[in-house]
Amino acid sequence: MSVQEQLPDVRQHPKSVEPLGLAEVERLRADFPILAERVNGHPLSYLDSAATSQRPLHVLDAEREFLLQANAAVHRGAHTLAAEATEQFEAARATVARFVGAQVNELVWTSNATEALNLVAYGISNASLGRGGAAAAPFRIGPGDEIVVTEMEHHANLVPWQELAARTGATLRAIGLADDGTLRMDDAVEMIGERTRLVCVTAASNVLGTINPVEEIVALAAAVSAIVVLDACQSVPHRATDFAALGVDFAAFSGHKMLGPTGIGALYGRAELLAALPPFLTGGSMITTVTLQEAEYLPPPQRFEAGTQRVSQAIALAAAVRYLDSVGVERIHEWERSLGQRLVVGLEGIAGVRVLGPQSGIDRAGLVAFEVDGVHSHDVGQFLDDRGIAVRVGHHCAQPLHRRYRITSSTRASLYLYNTPDEVDAFLDSVHDVRAFFGADR
Fold first, then answer.
1. Of 8, 269, 325, 342, which one has the greatest count of Cβ atoms within 10 A?
2. Is 0.85 topped by the overall pTM?
3. Which of 44, 73, 244, 397 is labelled catalytic?
């Protein structure tokens, strides 16, 4: 039996209602050999999954199996290996599409979420230059039009829209943040109006852990016929997702944050919008006819997949999806929610520690960013690393957010299905010791 067949198909797996428990988590950890490593003489506590998650053996084996048995260019050759590679490549697309509530022709492979968001931004830019004909007219923006973002966006869902505004003359506006880390929805109601053409928002903040009211934002945008672009990097790996039911127009996510490999991500787009959007990258594999003067393009998703594709990575991402589904995404979410509250409550009880975002008792993503009074985040990270605890330090590609809260950087701990209460407690004990070690408690 192949690695791909060892885990149940997304369509067939019944969602379990039983909570994920510690005994099961300990068994799952055996699927991640790296978690048995020691760092600086201590057992590794990996609390950096919001940056990059670890990969189970099922995912590693699926990619290796493909490379050993069926490696070939897809959509190009007529030989047996090429046909097998193409079949597995498109089967992977179908698996991942179902996982996020999309049709097969609504999922475009990209290198990561950053490329997916840039694909939309540059496609709209090309439409604004007149490319795409009459079908692309709804995408055209220019002076007087507005693009709305939020103050909490990752740079990947901010800088492309800054550049689009600069190229087209549109105005970029930002929904502000309240002191508690939530969006100022009064700002959203005021900003999203008849001039709004695009609303670009994250489903969950990669710094604050805030879970945004996407349904409310979609409703505001729909009332003025604005396009909604969702950064779903911190939501797809952690909770059940249905982009079609959510009503967003485009959404981006990355494989490496959901047990998959680097070098693979995806763009979801409503079928009729993808069919009208001019391509971003052009070249081979995305055309029907080419003359010396012009070219005609394939329909989506191939229209947006120029050049040699990331085949083994797509197959590995599908294996990651099957793994997540075999455990149960909502069960994973509940486990992370419980550990996340343990993190927040513990940090709130440590003198000199300031938690960013929603406080304990409020639903949030399974990550916590914080500031330690008198100690730079890089020093906090080094101190924790000395004890085998891996966290993220810096501005987490969200400088405007940090500026809003008057800090330059923070330390972030983030959780996934393989983390345990003991790891959380060891982390909290270590944070408790930071200020004394650096003499900041005097």
1. 269
2. yes
3. 397
